[in-house]
Specification:
The chain is mainly α. It has four helices and four strands. The model has no long low-confidence stretch (mean pLDDT about 80).
Length: about 110
């Protein structure tokens, strides 16, 4: 997943251990947060695209953490409340198809 993230960020081919560690941490933190949204269930490969896309958002927000908006030289950028907001429909659909009931702490057995 690291190589996919680097490719999407235009960083593929770069050999930078510090950058790789930063990106690995972003991937880990994003996966961990998604797992919480799924009630503790490991998202597996089905939701890798969400992990990658949210990791891109988080990478691009470095230096702007905690801001709701950021203005530089007249250009203003607004941020969503949660980096996962755009993916909540996908997450809810995934939970329904996998019978995940987070209100009850995990998988709902039919």
């Amino acid at each position: 997943m690291l190589e996919d993230l680097k490719r999407m960020l235009g960083l593929s081919g770069q050999k930078d251990e510090e950058l790789d560690q930063k990106l690995e941490w972003i991937l880990y933190a994003t996966t961990s947060r998604l797992k919480v949204l799924l009630g503790g269930i490991d998202p597996g490969n089905d939701l890798d695209y969400i992990v990658t896309e949210v990791s891109i958002i988080r990478y691009n927000r470095i230096g702007s953490e905690g801001f709701q908006s950021h203005t530089v030289e007249g250009e203003s950028v607004g941020f969503l409340n949660s980096d996962f907001d755009s993916y909540m429909d996908d997450i809810e659909t995934y939970k329904r198809t996998k019978n995940i009931d987070t209100a009850k702490g995990g998988i709902r057995w039919a």
